[in-house]
Design a protein that fits this description.
The protein is mostly helical. Helix content is 74%, strand content 3%. It has helices at residues 3-21, 27-43, 46-50, 84-100, 109-128, 132-141, 143-153, 158-186, 193-196, 203-220, 229-236, 239-264, 266-271, 273-292, 297-316, 321-352, 363-366, 368-382, 388-403, 405-413, 415-430, 437-440, 447-465, 468-486, and strands at 60-68, 73-79.
Length: 491
């Protein structure tokens, strides 16, 4: 078993163990076992970065074994500069989620922790799979634990939200399965994704494949107008579910564009880039306005995620290094920042049991330590220089300006909306006089919550002040991807 297999199967094994033998009367032991599993899952990913060769775009830490020999399906894993950071991000966020649920989840603790550990392993599998069918299995399997998490531990409309989440993402993925089967036969019976990158495909086939992939990945990102499942899922999900959904699961779709759409159908990607850029700008502009009028904090941050992911797809489809690298950096930073924003909302909800902005006011007076963290993450969500939220958006805007000045100007202008809805929420929730007795009775964060938020604050500031380690890892892979995409497959 290599490092990637360990990162996938170790949390899954612990998750299955907790589901099988965990009991509510032993909830304390279950929590510690889950934390140990999450930490071990993160530790085995650290050598991936420590031993990563930044001078090559080739797949590293590869594992290749026969799986379903009759159909030439292989258990093939590997990471490059496009994917390695997401393996670490997934394992890191899993630790935060386990800690966040320590005192909040009191019923079916073993099932809750088990579902998150299994989900963590499956998401690592998506980022490291190099066999098309293996990718599809991991990609679809992530729906099951998240469906259960929303459906069991969610809010009053949890069943509706869980079904909507499941149906949207499943229906989109069925077209991708058809595309994978077509590529399997077109390549002479191979599911190797890297071989598909080299297939000489006619334009008609490329166009059909592009939209088949778009159906799966656009829903997952989610892009406008197939984003409507996300606010419902976020609002009804427990805090841990919202954190994983925003920090990791949205990235699965964006990663799919990098691994499938752009390298397999480059001509169609160029031909339909205008559509992708338009949809991305609509997401940033329109969704920003929608977020501005929200009264529910979770729904506001959920809509902001759609807007931020719009910058990701915008950067990808301008086809230059600044844009693509900026999109990947934005994905990583959004993982830290959005996860932290949802955790802050969870901290307040655990105390007041309301997500309505109007239920708060003057929180800084009773929770000064917590308010300091919340303000930092809000500033990062606005894209303040010196925080993680700034780096990716700035790189994307520079890339778009290089592509077309007026599009870059429009993208930069829309950042005003991000600042507007974030600061408007911060002003009403945290500042001013104490608004009511609920706020007056609030108790500041303890050691567990302080540690959880401090770790994320360090990540947000580190990436904002010194992003070079992140960009160095992805630079060669981004360059090679763009060289490949620039080479037409048409005769």
């Amino acid at each position: 078993m290599g490092l990637l297999s360990a990162a996938i199967w170790l949390p899954i094994a612990f998750g299955v163990l907790l589901l099988a033998v965990g009991r509510d009367e032993h909830a304390g032991v279950v929590r510690w076992v889950a934390l140990i599993a999450a930490v071990l899952g993160f530790v085995v990913t650290l050598p991936l970065i420590a031993g990563f060769d930044t001078t090559t775009a080739a797949m590293q830490f590869s594992e290749d074994l026969a799986w379903i020999a009759r159909f030439n399906v292989r258990y093939h894993l590997g990471v490059d500069g496009l994917s390695v950071w997401f393996v670490l991000l997934t394992a890191f966020i899993t630790i935060i989620v386990v800690i966040s649920a320590w005192e909040v989840i009191t019923e079916r603790v073993h099932q809750y922790m088990g579902a998150f550990l299994i989900l963590s392993g499956l998401m690592v599998g998506v980022f490291s799979a190099l066999d098309g069918l293996l990718f599809y299995v991991f990609f679809e399997a992530t729906l099951i634990p998240m469906y259960i998490i929303i459906g069991i531990w969610g809010g009053p409309r949890r069943v509706y939200a869980a079904f909507k989440f499941f149906l949207y993402t499943l229906l989109g993925s069925l077209l991708m399965l058809v595309a994978l089967i077509y590529l399997y036969y077109k390549s002479g019976g191979s599911f190797e994704i890297l071989e598909w990158h080299m297939l000489p495909l006619p334009m008609t086939a490329q166009t059909l494949l592009f939209f088949a992939f778009l159906a799966a990945f656009a829903v997952k990102v989610p892009m406008w107008p197939v984003h409507t499942w996300l606010p419902d899922a976020h609002v009804e999900a427990p805090t841990g579910g919202s954190v994983v959904l925003a920090a990791i699961m949205l990235k699965l779709g964006a990663y799919g564009f990098l691994r499938f759409s752009m390298p397999i159908v480059p001509d169609a990607s160029h031909a339909w880039a205008g559509l992708m850029i338009t949809l991305s700008l609509v997401a940033v502009l329109y969704i920003g306005l929608v977020a501005l009028v929200q009264n529910d904090m979770k729904k506001l941050v959920a809509y902001s995620s759609v807007a931020h992911m719009g910058f990701v797809t915008l950067g990808f489809f301008v086809f230059n290094e600044l844009g693509v690298a900026g999109g990947i950096v934005q994905m990583i930073s959004h993982g830290f920042v959005s996860g932290a924003m949802f955790l802050c909302i969870g901290v307040l909800y655990d105390r007041v049991h309301s997500r309505e902005i109007s239920a708060y006011g003057g929180v800084v007076n009773t929770m000064p330590k917590f308010a300091a963290f919340a303000l930092l993450f809000a500033m990062a969500n606005c894209g303040l220089p010196g925080t993680a939220g700034f780096v990716g958006e700035w790189m994307v805007i520079l890339g778009v300006v290089k592509f077309n000045f007026w599009l870059g100007l429009l993208a930069a202008t829309t950042l005003v909306f991000g600042a507007a809805y974030t600061l408007w929420m911060v002003k009403r929730v945290y500042f001013g006089a104490i608004a009511n007795d609920d706020v007056r009775a609030l108790v500041d964060i303890g050691r567990r919550e302080f540690f959880m938020l401090a770790v994320l604050a360090i990540a947000v500031l580190w990436m904002g002040i010194h992003p070079k380690p992140f960009t160095d890892v992805m630079q060669v892979s981004v360059t090679e991807l763009l060289k490949h995409v620039a080479q037409s497959k048409l005769n």
